[in-house]
Amino acid sequence: MAIFLAISPAPLATLPAGNKIISTPVTSFAKSGGLRLIPKIRIAKAAKRSFPVPNSFSPKISCSLAQPETLATVQTTIAKQLGIETCIVAPQTKFIDLGADSLDTVEIMMALEEKFGVSIGEGGAENIATVQDAADLIEKVMASA
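== Acyl carrier protein ==
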C-alpha cells in the first residue's frame, strides 16, 4: 500500500473575517482511506458573539414575607388542588408550569382563602404568578387583618 503526499499551491480556501478576506492554500494528502482535505486557516481577528453567554453564578435574592409553615401549607394545598405530588411544588414554580390554567388558579386561591380563613379578593389574586407569591399574599392579608 502506497501513501502519496501532494501539495498543490493552486487551490485556495477563502473565508470572510470581518472586513478582511483571508486566503490560504489547502493541503491535500492521501491516506489509506483516500484523499482528505485539511484547510489551513489563519484567524485575523476575534469574532463578536451574537448570543449571550449564560452566567454560571446568578444569586437569587428572595424578599419573602411568608413564614415556612405558611409556605408549606400553601404548597400542600396547591398540590392537592392540582392532583400532583407536593415535592413538585417549589416556591419559585409558576402555576403555569404546574399545569394550572386561570380556572385552576381561581380554585387554588379559593381553597387557600378557606384554609387560612382570609379573604384575598380579585385584585390580589391577579398579581400571583408563583407559589411564593401566593404564600406572601396570604401572609400579607393575615398581617393586615
